[in-house]
Fold this protein.
Amino acid sequence: MNPQVRAKPDDTRARIITTAETLFRRIGFAKTAVADIASELGMSPANVYRFFPSKNAIVEAICQRCLVEVEDQAWAVARARGPAGPRIERLILEILAYHKENVLTDQRVNDMVLAAIELSWDAIRAHKDVMRTVVEVILRDGIEAGEFEPVEPHETADLIFRSLIAFTHPMVIGQCLEEGQDLEAEARASVRFILRAITPR
């Protein structure tokens, strides 16, 4: 029996997403057709369309998977023990490391990221809310421990996250990498500068 026939729908979806992302990175988002993805998988384009109505839907699925990976890392940092300040710094550095590894400065990848951002705006807005909530959770820990001033946590989390966009937005990270910036050092300095504003003197 053909193993493809036995494959569970979720497994097939995952294989399509992984193969599509590999092709987008290799030959570019614009040049990759659903037929190319199907051919790489040894299936018909019609079979791919059973799982995804369009190439754009595949890009949205790739974007969603990436957002979930970032969120999982973020919650692991939020739930870790230790002082709040170093946890916020670690959070930003881990998001930066994730995007550096996945975005780099390859134009083919940037095209895919741009398409994903345009197509998945609701998912990205929801992701930003999750990330602000993660920062807020860590802030509340710091306030409770006396590490931070008793600031309004929700508003302060929003300000912190907006202030650090250069280290959390894949397109901005890509531009900074092209300019040869030492983003890790800049991220550390920026986080420490921002947190000084809410640290008791």
